């Protein structure tokens, strides 16, 4: 049975570029999904924070648009693939993904089918409306009602589908937070600082979820450096997600004077994605993407922002963003032989 160090930030605030403070922490989805996957696979998961303080869920990461139900996300992905002949040329921003009601497409298509539309016809109509909303920065509900693309649905029914998605997403966010609150390790984590190198060597892997918290207390931490060196020396998997790869900045130098992960291919939350987030718009003093490149990483990001992208180079596993959560967790399970 693999023993996984589940390293979570305990930070509650991050300093902005202007010297102000902003609430932060870990992202709930990125914390709960891998934890459950690892436990279900039979791994022993030991929750650690740098100082033994309980981790704090970033309120921003509990916003409903980070918790769309998977059937809605999957249907939306099938809709966005119709936006351009070449999927690699499609760019969906966080604003478009979260503020235009586009992810309600599945629920609208279901309502169209009750009006006699075939699944193909319903998909085609909502895709046409969604493409207009995407290109013109308009609400999907407004496009359907104002541009004659309602398919016979009353305006109130169209808006009810959008409201239904919002309610389902809020409930899913609350459910995930409740699951995390019920995990003993999240209530009383072990302190990384208190563990000896011999105890660290008992772990078979480390996983660090994201949220902006890792930028605060994992990126320049001597105890994180110890953990990375101990695991790297025995080529144990080192996995991190989204902002989690900030922990790699704590890694010590090799004997040749280069950063421990110099020349490794990796990914993380990109500067492009960061600029679309709430903290990014407020102004951060540094970006994880740029810092890792400057440290010596060979950066490998996905074809576009917000799509799932995982990079595995030797014992290093990194995931780009929240959409990469499951794939990053699965890559770690494969590496420790418990998938």
TrEMBL record:
Alphabetical list of Pfam families matching this protein: DJ-1_PfpI
Keyword Metal-binding tagged: no
UniProt-listed InterPro entries: Class_I_gatase-like (IPR029062), DJ-1/PfpI (IPR002818), L-Aspartase-like (IPR008948), Prot/Nucl_acid_deglycase (IPR050325)
Matching SUPFAM superfamilies: Class I glutamine amidotransferase-like (SSF52317), L-aspartase-like (SSF48557)
DJ-1/PfpI domain ranges (all copies): 153-334
Keywords, ordered alphabetically: Lyase
Name of this chain's protein: Thiamine biosynthesis protein ThiJ
Organism expressing this protein natively: Amycolatopsis rubida
Biological classification of the source: Bacteria, Bacillati, Actinomycetota, Actinomycetes, Pseudonocardiales
């Amino acid at each position: 049975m693999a023993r996984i160090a589940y390293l979570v930030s305990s930070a509650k605030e991050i300093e902005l570029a202007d010297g102000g403070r902003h609430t932060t922490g870990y992202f709930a989805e990125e914390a709960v999904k891998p934890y459950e996957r690892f436990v279900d696979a039979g791994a022993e998961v030991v929750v650690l924070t740098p100082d033994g303080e309980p981790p704090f869920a970033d309120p921003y990461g509990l916003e409903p648009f980070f918790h769309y139900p998977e059937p809605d996300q999957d249907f939306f992905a099938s809709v966005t693939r119709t936006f351009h002949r070449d999927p690699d040329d499609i760019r969906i921003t966080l604003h478009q993904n979260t503020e235009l009601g586009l992810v309600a497409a599945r629920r609208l298509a279901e309502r169209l089918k009750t009006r006699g539309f075939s699944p193909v016809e319903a998909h085609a109509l909502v895709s046409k409306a969604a493409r207009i909303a995407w290109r013109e920065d308009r609400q999907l509900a407004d496009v359907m009602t104002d541009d004659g693309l309602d398919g016979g649905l009353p305006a109130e029914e169209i808006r009810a589908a959008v409201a239904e998605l919002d309610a389902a997403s809020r409930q899913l966010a609350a459910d995930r937070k409740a699951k995390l609150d019920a995990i003993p390790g999240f209530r009383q984590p072990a302190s990384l600082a208190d563990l000896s190198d011999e105890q660290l060597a008992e772990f078979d892997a480390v996983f660090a979820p994201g949220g902006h918290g890792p930028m605060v207390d994992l990126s320049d931490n001597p105890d994180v450096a110890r953990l990375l060196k101990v695991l790297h020396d025995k080529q144990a998997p080192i996995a991190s997600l989204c902002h989690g790869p900030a922990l790699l900045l704590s890694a010590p130098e090799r004997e040749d004077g280069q950063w421990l992960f110099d020349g490794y291919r990796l990914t993380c939350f990109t500067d492009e994605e960061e600029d679309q987030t709430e903290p990014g718009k407020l102004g951060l003093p540094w970006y994880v993407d740029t810092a890792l490149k400057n440290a010596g990483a060979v950066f490998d990001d996905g074809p576009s922002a917000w799509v799932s992208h995982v990079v595995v180079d030797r014992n290093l596993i990194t995931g780009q963003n929240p959409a990469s959560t499951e794939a990053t967790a699965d890559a770690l399970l494969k590496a420790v032989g418990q998938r």
